[in-house]
Design brief:
Rossmann fold; 10 strands; alpha/beta; four-stranded antiparallel sheet
Length: 231
């Protein structure tokens, strides 16, 4: 029997990467593309601030085409919803039946996604839903998933955690009230290796800046970092 096809909502971070790993293991749907929104002015993934070139390399590493949804800056919610509605219509026209999300436990986020997909012919799928996040974070790390912290909310975490590796030492450095997977917006990540990748992406640190109330740690290709150091 042919499995239903799905696109996966790809943020460039660990949760969407792990959602891909889970659906591949479960075999219930076949993911045929990654769906990502991009800030069209800065050419970066929204909130994660990941460069478009690294996003392209991620898609190549997991072996899937990338469907990019450009968003204006600033982006009112109406513009976001219009862009996503067009993307969903395109998915349905291509025979896609489901959108996979890496959401963990935020009921309002899940409800929003379900409401927006209602009537589109697309079913939402949440393979990580309600997995305890402390165990989930450590399972990701033990699997060989590698990620860097690209965004920190300084109201919730120490600024110095921006740019850190997502590993056991990072988890130990989190305050007791922080979610280990950052589901409450404490931090966002860039995944650069793991079981869902055919090969790692070689990255290095760039500039760390504070903007719009968040601390962003830029990540570049390792070769670009080395070249900048010689300049």
């Amino acid at each position: 029997m042919t499995k239903p096809t799905a696109w996966l909502s790809w943020s460039s971070g660990k949760d969407s990467a792990w959602a891909l790993e889970m659906v591949r293991r479960q075999g219930t749907v076949e993911v045929t593309a990654l769906l990502t929104t991009l800030n069209d002015k800065f050419k970066r993934v929204a909130m994660h601030a990941v460069r478009e070139e690294l996003l392209d390399l991620q898609a190549e590493a997991v072996g899937l085409p990338l469907v990019k949804v450009p968003l204006p800056w600033p982006c009112p919610n109406s513009a976001y919803e219009e862009a996503m509605a067009r993307a969903c219509a395109e998915a349905r026209n291509r025979g896609v039946r489901s959108i996979v999300f890496g959401d963990l436990f935020l009921e309002d986020v899940r409800r929003y996604r379900e409401e927006k997909l209602a009537g589109t012919g697309l079913e939402p799928f949440f393979p990580l839903w309600h997995i305890p996040t402390s165990a989930l974070a450590r399972e990701m790390i033990s699997s060989g998933l590698k990620a860097r912290i690209t965004t920190v909310d300084p109201k919730k975490l120490d600024r110095t955690l921006a740019g850190r590796e997502f590993d056991e030492a990072f988890l130990q450095a989190l305050p007791a009230n922080a979610d280990p997977c950052g589901e409450n917006g404490e931090f966002h990540t860039l995944t650069y290796a793991g079981p869902m990748f055919r090969h790692p992406i070689h990255i290095g640190p760039g500039e760390v800046v504070e903007r719009d109330g968040f601390v962003f740690a830029d990540m570049k290709l390792a070769g670009d970092v080395a070249s900048a150091g010689r300049a």
